[in-house]
Design the sequence.
């Protein structure tokens, strides 16, 4: 990482006050993570083959600027920390307005789960290397 994705805020992402709803920030952060992992060969099909998946323990959002319908935003993610074996990690997302101002940060702590045993697991070496902090 870092990796970024650009989005245009849609009506469905708004709250009754006319700005982006709180859960949309988490949705955009999650989508950015999925795109980043897929860009390194770890898409949903690959996770199915490996029989592992990501889980979150904590998600924290700090709201700094309002975002409205039709605005273009950029979501950048980076691995902030992780265990040496890649089993646990923290990813920090920064959501930027089109003018470059930071609108929010989303921080998630997660790990990998063995989908058959339903227990935490260590990922394959290639994924562990990807999850090391840069």
Sequence:
């Amino acid at each position: 990482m870092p990796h970024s994705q650009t989005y245009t805020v849609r009506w469905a992402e708004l709250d009754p006050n006319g700005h982006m709803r709180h859960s949309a920030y988490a949705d955009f952060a999650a989508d950015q993570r999925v795109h980043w992992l897929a860009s390194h060969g770890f898409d949903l099909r690959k996770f199915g083959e490996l029989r592992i998946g990501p889980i979150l323990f904590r998600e924290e959002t700090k709201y700094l600027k309002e975002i409205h319908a039709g605005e273009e935003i950029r979501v950048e993610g980076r691995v902030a920390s992780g265990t040496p074996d890649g089993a646990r990690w923290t990813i920090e997302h920064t959501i930027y307005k089109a003018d470059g101002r930071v609108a929010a940060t989303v921080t998630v702590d997660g790990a990998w789960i063995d989908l058959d045993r339903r227990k935490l697991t260590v990922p394959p070496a290639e994924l562990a290397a990807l999850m090391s902090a840069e």
Observations:
- The longest helix spans residues 22-39.
- Residues 3-130 form a domain with the Thiol Ester Dehydrase; Chain A fold (CATH 3.10.129.10).
- The chain has a mean pLDDT of 95.
- The CA atoms of residues 2 and 120 lie 25 Å apart.
